[in-house]
Amino acid sequence: MTMEFATRYRGASRIPADPSKPYVIEKGEGDRAHLFGDLVTVYAGGEQTDNTFNFFTVEGPKGDIIPAHVHADTHEVFYVTQGAVRLFAEDPEGEQLERLLTPGDFGFVPKNCAHAYRMERHHSQVVGVAAGPGGTFERFFESLGTPVDEMGLPAQPFVPAPHKFGTVPQEYDVRFLPDHQWRTS
């Protein structure tokens, strides 16, 4: 059984805020949010790691590319556990990379590199870890998306209102690049 704790972000969280205490969370029982067609589950974030890293999963159906974005102070890891995910990334000199990641494949995007991804198969899942001097950004998912208690994908994609995208860079290390073009497939 997973206990619930109140935090500054949620009335009920399955993640204890005290960074000095070990804890275990059962599969899928982290803090969940729907964003676009995906379910994001956070298992550890800034409160638990003194803002040094976060750990989350994103699972979703085959779908559209998520918007291109960049993190000025955060490195991000993509580790695929199910399905297939196409990772798009661009280094600061403009060289682009596109790779299809399947279970067991690992992708790393350093800070200041534009990136995006697309689920290529239904029931795909990515384990994400982000770390850097700017802190963590896991609460971005429920801020831009919508927090949920239930497990599973959204019945309908949750697309945030356009004005919400403008508020994200001030609170989280996520800057969207609406005009970014991928020169790859």
From TrEMBL:
A Pfam family that this protein carries is Cupin_2
User: Where in the numbering of this chain does the Cupin type-2 domain appear?
Assistant: 60-119
| Domain of life per record | Bacteria
Identification of the protein by name: Quercetin 2,3-dioxygenase
Q: Which organism is it from?
A: Streptomyces endophyticus
